[in-house]
Amino acid sequence: MRAIAARVFRADGDLRPRLATLGDIVDETGAPIDRGLAIFFPAPHSYTGEDVLELHVHGSPVVARETLTTVLACGARLAGAGEFTRRAFLRGKIDLSAAEAVADLIDAETRSAARAARAQLAGGLQSEIASLRAHVGTVLEELAAALDFPDEVVEPPRGRLRGEIEGICGCLCALSRSWEIGRLVREGPSVAIVGPPNAGKSSLLNALLGDERALVSDRAGTTRDTIEESFGVGGIRVRLIDTAGIREHADRLEAAGIARTERALEHARLALVVIDASRPLEDAARALLARTRARRRLVVFNKRDAGTAGYDARESEEHDAMLASVLDAADVGRIRDAIRLAFDLDGAVDLERPHLATARQADCAHRAQQALGSAIRTLESGDPVDLITPDLVEAYAALGELTGDAVTEAILDGIFARFCIGK
Q: In angstroms, what CA-CA distances link 307 with 231, 275, 278, 296?
């Protein structure tokens, strides 16, 4: 790295560690490319723990391209996806959960997602899991000593072993619960906008987004397919899914759209049921209201500016339904607030505390829980205490995989494949 720096950067003095130096960036023949800055990070005081050179050039695509071409010609190569962070992990600069948090921070689209990623970068999860893994290791050491030296080491009491393992299991259970909330913060909960045709679903989507995203018409059945968009509310990214109106006697094409509506409704975290308030409640509207009562939903009787016949005829189960008009900005604001309250994720989990952030981490924790659960059942059955050793070894390995203390190249390849090139 020092040799490359000497060939591509010219300055009055030597590069000083971690200080920006103004100078000329030149090509391999010595011809100037740009006037810019160079910052040299000598090992081990760099992101990767190796010598790192940063070149800061002007934003011209030509300048950037010529600088990159020159660096490659002088012996460098293009980094692979996530290679800098992978090198940082392999050199012990960061743990594996922090490495995964780098990708989460880059991909974050809301304040909550960015805050959760920053908390992971601080290493809280690593510390928590390392403590649990050390506890499992201590129990294994006790069992090994009692097995190898039965005349000198007393076998650990069954009751104490069970209590310690149950305590570790309890901590893992709490972390596992945090995974679902953390996933929703990062990916965004889905909201399916459903209702009979011409109730104003697409108009509501456009109003919430503040953009004419969906085609709107007075003709029923205009929406034939699902449209998915996202917007931020209360620091949370929410995925809105506009769907085809649900009704009987639809033509073949419309029926296909309704089938997709059914699937979207089934998988959505929240059903945003839109009913035409200005018309008497029809059978299709009553049926939809009835079938969504057992799930999380928000009912909006739209078109209050045109009448309230449908709203007035609602059943007692819809007593908390909103009467609104998507043409009224204040009403749209109330609907946004209701969606935010339905997903009060910030109140459900403290994202500053250690929590599981990826499916890989959740799987490792789940496997550790299963192994510890098996050990507890063995102790409860009255079988010899030493029979729990294989289960504890399995839990120890799963926790090591979570932190990166025991991880394969294949797992690392999968983790860093989701990174952007370089970082």
A: 30, 12, 4, 27
